[in-house]
Amino acid sequence: MSESLVQCVRTDGFEMEYARFGNGSRAMVVIPGLAIKSVMKSAASLQVPYKMFVEDFTLYFFDRRKDVEAGYSLEDMARDQVLAMQALGLKDVALYGVSQGGMVAQHIAATHPELVWKLVLGCSTSKPEPQQLEVIGNWARLARAHDREGLVDAFIRDCFSVKFAERYRRALLMMYRDVSEAEMDRFAIFARECDNVDTGDMLADVRCPVLVLAASEDRVVLPVASDKIVDKLNAAGVPCEYKVFEGYGHAAFDEIKEYKDRILEFLKR
Q1: For the whole prediction, is pTM greater than 0.85?
Q2: Which residues pair with 263 in a beta bridge?
Q3: What are phi and psi of 122, to 5 degrees?
Q4: What is the CA radius of gyration of the chain?
Q5: Where are the domains of the chain?
Q6: Class of 6-126+199-268 per CATH?
Q7: Residue-wise pLDDT tens digits, 164-213
Q8: How far apart are CA 159 and CA 43, in angstroms?
Q9: How is the beta sheet containing 240-245 ordered, strand by strand?
């Protein structure tokens, strides 16, 4: 991993790692979703699937802050993300939040509109659906029990389409082969807070165009969660576009190039 690719921003209260690449004049901030291992562990692998963005944007992929304790809320995640962006001088950015990252991104866009030029929400939600509570609750339970094999199996099964999981299962298992107890404890803290997302009323305060992306076979947050986000945005008169990718699951953003093509189209308009 290139030392210049992964960097660390420090504020008075915490440290947060991020990966930076691209040469574009506008910043694109990506807030990932729940991950058993930090995306910083495989940051170099992000450059190929996101190469289509590098001429127009300088990309910043953020991890969560380094030290967290139980009860670290979505509001805390959003606050710290804002502080990290401000410390780096980032504003008027293209903000792309994936899954839980989309929950955080909704907070940021609603409370700090000066930071966000355009907003993309990928397979996210503004209120937990019953299936989300069950699926992510099971992940949290397995993580707290330090059942690495059970957690990895459930995560792969729930996130990826059957075809993708079968084709890349060996590679996915290799990626998670050395998950530590500390990483599972950290994952459980973040997973638990997905139960508490409640951003529906905040969406009326968003002041930028929004692209909402969903997947028809999403078994984690369900496409109805995106339907509800779009309904809230439309009711508030927030400019909004919506696309559902048919036949894909929660991790459609990792499985198909068309997902990123649609984001780039939205951002370049």
Answers
A1: yes
A2: none
A3: -105, 115
A4: 17
A5: 6-126+199-268
A6: alpha beta
A7: 999 989 988 988 889 999 999 999 999 999 999 999 999 999 999 999 99
A8: 20
A9: 6-10, 15-21, 57-65, 26-31, 93-98, 116-122, 210-215, 240-245
